[in-house]
């Protein structure tokens, strides 16, 4: 039996056009700021993964390739995908208003969180993923 292709795959869609098309002004500005932060911390050019995830870098999972970190400016909140997770992370207590999922960090708007702490969390997650999944 053939292995099913993952639903979310890297595409050739424009990240710039995707971010520019975000309807809510605050969410669009936040998406631009997160893109700038991720580019700076990773040294990677972003790529679209599926129709709504902006991803940086890549690693291979049992089900196929996936971005090392990424984000999506959803209507309800800004979602940051930092695959290494957040369990027991002391920085999370200093971050500000947020929610977490398995490997998702949900932020209503960037103004709700400490930018320096967010930067540390993203940098730590990126480094951890690079160590776990070297190229």
TrEMBL record:
Q: Kindly give the InterPro entries that the UniProt entry links to this protein.
A: YdhG-like
Q: Where is the YdhG-like domain?
A: 27-124
Q: What is this protein called?
A: YdhG-like domain-containing protein
Q: What is the lineage of its organism?
A: Bacteria, Pseudomonadati, Pseudomonadota, Alphaproteobacteria, Caulobacterales
